[in-house]
Amino acid sequence: MSGPSARTDRVDAERVARVCEALTSVLEQGQLRRDADTLAAYGRDESDSGVFPPDVVVFPETTAQVSAVFKACVAHGVPFTPCGARSGKSGGSLPLNGGVAVSLERMNRIHSISVEDLTAVVGPGVVTGDLMKAVEAQGLFYPPDPNSWEFCTLGGNVAENAGGPRALKYGVTRDYVIGLEWVLPDGEVLRVGRRTIKGVAGYDLVGLFVGSEGTLGVATEITLQLIPLPRKVLTALVVFPSVLDAARGVSAVLAAGILPRCLELIDDVALRAVDGRGFQFPAGAGSVVIAEVDGHGEEGLLEELSRLGDICAQQGATQTLVARDEGQREKLWAVRRAISPALRALKPHKISEDIVVPRSKIPEIIQRLKMMGAELGLTVATYGHAGDGNLHANILYEGPHQRGLVDEALRRMLVMTVELGGTITGEHGVGLAKREFLALEQGPALLDLQRRLKSFFDPSGLLNPQKIFPALKRST
Ligand SMILES: Cc1cc2nc3c(=O)[nH]c(=O)nc-3n(C[C@H](O)[C@H](O)[C@H](O)COP(=O)(O)OP(=O)(O)OC[C@H]3O[C@@H](n4cnc5c(N)ncnc54)[C@H](O)[C@@H]3O)c2cc1C
Question: Which UniProt key words apply to this protein (predicted)?
């Protein structure tokens, strides 16, 4: 098995010319771009999986335009690939065979927020952080918080079933999507799901479409459920001498029946990368955990943090420092968000995996990853949402000459994750980056069933080709 690979048979120029002509009759001026800068920008995402420029990028603004674009692509046999903010980390928005990149970014209106029904209806191009702020202004809470919330879109979150630090207590995107307006690859527009909190009529197509990674159609409108905004949030930094102590601390807290809304672990390598960048960690810190609790009364929350601190102390924690105000809280979270770019400054290249293991296995996987790094001579940095077992394990390396070693490290990491009862991706999706590894955790019958589902929804095979499933061997 190897890292990302894709056949790059590009659609021929004649078909592209024909589809462009058809698209100009369904889109306004400025909604179709073919300049070199735009094509280059829409040919990459945050996955380091390579550059695959489309032949044309379109920016539909209505559901009818999305439907018309899809119909034109199918009629002319041209592949089409949806995208939001292109912050994806698995290559899901890369137009592998060229063709049309369909950007949903201009469908960025928050249509409604209902305080009585606790729901919001949004366009897919709404930036996640914009919705969070808009609902918070009305005393409501949209908990899913991918660390890219400042720029990723809700359509991309739906496609990847994104989650973040708060998933520990509140769950992920799927837990909040109750209804979708959905355009199938042949252009047909469906309404699936509901606007009520309960509802079980028919198959759960919302459940299928959320997490379908832009391969079964696109969301053109999303109905989300909200919850009341917790009145008080407290955040603490728990300092440990080593990452193993920190991992044991996380397991012990959860086993003691405490459910913080976040428990984020930062190992020694990641900690060194961000130390001093707007935040100074206490001397002697070998690893830290950011713990956050929320509720309605400060006293109860302080008590919970104090219990959490005691449990961590039994696992070797030297200090539990509670942020005094909003400014200090934000500094802690800014440090957490800065890890990914800061690691890039340590070594020129990195591969970031989002493995998940049962929570009881967190200390073991961290130990095994460190041993593997030492054995292969590669730096491994581990951080992330340890509270729900979801770790960002990063392999840092110097350059292409180490690529063989990196591929071996990646393979070993995913094999050990599955051996420990885990899964190869907790947030970022399979996309292109991990499709050759899906067979590690899913058997042939399950892969085959999913391929048949894809063919059922997309008989032309033109929507976002070559994603999720391992490449089929070509007969010679
Ligand atoms: C610094 C950083 C931190 C991150 N942290 C997290 C994190 O904590 N948790 C997490 O889950 N992810 C995280 N991510 C990954 C990424 O931000 C998420 O996967 C996000 O959901 C992608 O949204 P997007 O708008 O950028 O989508 P894109 O990257 O543009 O697309 C992602 C996929 O969605 C499909 N798609 C886009 N719009 C639609 C639509 N309307 N309908 C159907 N399919 C669509 C695309 O075809 C593609 O397959 C992080 C990324 C970065 C760069």
Answer: FAD, Flavoprotein, Oxidoreductase
